[in-house]
């Protein structure tokens, strides 16, 4: 068999069907034996040319893909940073909502405190009035008691005076 030159010849040789004999018995040679002979036929120059051709064919696309992947990676980093910023904004919004809820709760309890204070002032006024009234009633009662006591003493004195006294004999 002739040795083809260049990559086209190699491709033709590689694409050509192999001649295989009848089914191999266990005593015959293995199918790998022919492969080793085929590899010895291929010269190194053809391999180098094919390698260079393959590299020159795919390298620009691979380099463009590499640049595109680097750009995508950078864009992903930018997107992740932006996403983190947005997440922090949402967290701030949630904390603001929590703060707003706390303020509304504080307003509610403040109004309750104001109402309790009003009630306490009203109760204080009522108790003060009741204390004054109780004091007046107590003073009036004491005065009436004193008047009754004085009235009794007067009546006793009058009774003493009205009771007949035996005349003194001298």
TrEMBL record:
Q: Which family does it belong to?
A: Belongs to the BLOC1S6 family.
- Keyword Cytoplasm attached: yes
Chain intervals for the UniProt region annotation (Disordered): 1-25, 138-170
Q: Keywords for this entry?
A: Cytoplasm
Secretion signal span? none
Q: Which residues lie in Basic and acidic residues bias regions?
A: 1-10, 141-162
Gene, per the UniProt record: BLOC1S6
Tell me which PANTHER family the record gives. BIOGENESIS OF LYSOSOME-RELATED ORGANELLES COMPLEX 1 SUBUNIT 6
Q: Would you tell me the Gene Ontology cellular component terms? A: axon cytoplasm; BLOC-1 complex; cell-cell contact zone; contractile ring; endosome; filamentous actin; focal adhesion; microvesicle
Q: What is this protein called?
A: Biogenesis of lysosome-related organelles complex 1 subunit 6
Q: Which domain of life is it from?
A: Eukaryota
Q: Where in the cell is it found?
A: Cytoplasm
**InterPro entries listed in its UniProt record:** BLOC-1_pallidin (IPR017242), Snapin/Pallidin/Snn1 (IPR028119)
Q: Which organism is it from?
A: Terrapene triunguis
Functionally, this protein is described as follows: Component of the BLOC-1 complex, a complex that is required for normal biogenesis of lysosome-related organelles (LRO), such as platelet dense granules and melanosomes. In concert with the AP-3 complex, the BLOC-1 complex is required to target membrane protein cargos into vesicles assembled at cell bodies for delivery into neurites and nerve terminals. The BLOC-1 complex, in association with SNARE proteins, is also proposed to be involved in neurite extension. May play a role in intracellular vesicle trafficking, particularly in the vesicle-docking and fusion process.
Which GO terms label this protein's molecular function in UniProt?
actin filament binding; molecular adaptor activity; protein homodimerization activity
Gene Ontology biological process: actin filament bundle assembly; adenosine metabolic process; anterograde synaptic vesicle transport; ATP metabolic process; blood coagulation; bradykinin biosynthetic process; cellular response to epidermal growth factor stimulus; cilium assembly
């Amino acid at each position: 068999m002739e040795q083809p030159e260049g990559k086209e010849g190699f491709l033709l040789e590689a694409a050509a069907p192999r001649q295989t004999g009848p089914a191999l018995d266990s005593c015959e040679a293995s199918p790998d034996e022919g492969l080793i002979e085929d590899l010895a036929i291929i010269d190194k120059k053809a391999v180098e040319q094919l390698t260079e051709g393959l590299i020159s064919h795919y390298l620009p696309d691979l380099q463009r893909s590499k640049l595109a992947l680097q750009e995508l990676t950078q864009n992903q980093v930018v997107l992740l940073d932006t996403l983190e910023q947005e997440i922090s904004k949402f967290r701030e919004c949630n904390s603001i909502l929590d703060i707003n809820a706390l303020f509304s709760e504080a307003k509610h309890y403040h109004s309750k405190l104001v109402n309790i204070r009003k009630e306490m002032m009203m109760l204080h006024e009522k108790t003060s009035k009741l204390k004054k009234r109780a004091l007046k009633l107590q003073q009036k009662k004491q005065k009436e008691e004193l008047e009754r006591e004085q009235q009794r003493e007067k009546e006793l004195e009058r009774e003493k005076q009205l009771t007949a006294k035996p005349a003194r004999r001298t």
